[in-house]
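Query structure, 212 tokens:
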């Protein structure tokens, strides 16, 4: 069993991205299970980089992660939508508005990770979490949708999904109250997610497929 976990480079003026910092530590703690890969915060290029990582590592499970500033807990994303609608430019200056990710593709895909069981495990071990029904319309959703489209059409034996993590405390210091989470807690949560998916591979698919 091999789990590929990805995180993003910093974006939007931030100097760090907790998703990439966390997945590196997860890979260090679980070297026999998890490999990690950084993605650019760029529409299109991030998915191409993810495709290279999948070909290189041949994982059975792919867990992409990203930063969701303003959220207080780890968000287990359930659905990706076929839409790019960027509030800010990506790191290459692109800012698509109301554009499909893939023309003629399904409107949305569900994750194939067991988000309800994962939330139960996280809650039982004291890690704040929730199930989210929107991954936004920025590069995180672009990657999530592209991943699930590829797993539905090109890599049907692989399971995958997306997890959003909050800001770190140092990202919100000095700018008023905003929710954040310690890096150690984020890492502990992602370790639980990776281990749970690896220990129960036959049960991963709870709700799969697409929404037309």
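Result returned for the query:
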């Amino acid at each position: 069993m091999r789990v590929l976990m990805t995180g993003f480079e910093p974006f939007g003026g931030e100097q760090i991205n907790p998703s990439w910092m966390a997945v590196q530590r997860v890979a260090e703690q679980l070297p026999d299970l998890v490999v990690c890969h950084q993605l650019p915060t760029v529409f299109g290029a991030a998915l191409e980089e993810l495709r290279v990582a999948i070909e290189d590592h041949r994982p059975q499970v792919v867990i992409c992660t990203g930063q969701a500033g303003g959220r207080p807990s780890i968000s287990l994303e359930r659905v990706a939508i076929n839409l790019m609608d960027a509030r800010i430019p990506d790191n290459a200056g692109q800012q698509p508005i109301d554009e499909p990710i893939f023309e003629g593709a399904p409107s949305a895909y569900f994750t194939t990770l067991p988000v309800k069981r994962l939330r139960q495990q996280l809650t039982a071990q004291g890690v704040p979490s929730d199930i989210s029904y929107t991954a936004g319309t920025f590069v995180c959703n672009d990657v999530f949708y592209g991943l699930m489209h590829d797993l539905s059409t090109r890599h049907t034996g692989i399971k995958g999904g997306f997890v959003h993590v909050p800001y770190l405390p140092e990202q919100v210091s000095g700018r008023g109250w905003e929710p954040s989470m310690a890096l150690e807690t984020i890492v502990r949560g992602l370790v639980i997610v990776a281990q749970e998916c690896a220990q129960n591979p036959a049960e991963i698919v709870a709700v799969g497929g697409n929404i037309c």
